[in-house]
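Protein modeling request. Please complete all fields; requests missing the sequence field cannot be processed.
Requester role: graduate student
Desired output: 3D structure, token encoding
Chains: 1
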Amino acid sequence: MKKAIAITMKKAAANHDPGASKFFGPPTVPEAWLDSFYEDEIFFCQIRLSEIAALDAENKLPHTGYLYVFLNTEDGDRHLRADVRHYDGEPDLVIDGFNGAVDGYERFDEAWIMEFTEADEDHDGTKLFGTPSDWNYGEEPTALLLQYDPLDNETGFLDLLDGYLCLFFGDDPKDFGAATLTEAYS
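Delivered output (186 residues):
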């Protein structure tokens, strides 16, 4: 059976490592990216890839650098679009107040640290890889990159969504810009 990586989260301490794997809060990015974000884009998560290397036996992701997910909110909190990026290095810029600059997302300026554990592919909840939970759309989904369960944590993000936010790899799993986002309803 293919494995997944379960993600649990806890509210970050005030003095947390800004480069830690986390949902929300201030992203830690390469300075060269500073002017590359849209006005209505929020920071969703960053994953320090070395933290999952031992759990990613199938090498679905690089094991160095960072994977980032930003969400374009132009259409409100429904129909979000993903901006997925990989940076193979150590980022050097912390952007405080990133989400606070987008109306309606100010409360997501607090960081939630990720903790990773091995899980079965059909694990319900927030996870990397595996199979999407409650998938009822007829055709087989493309390969799952990240599943976010809004009821699996206390962040309040998309807590009215009855289902999951699923991020899928594109046709070329190394082309993170081709990743697609789907709101999967239970």
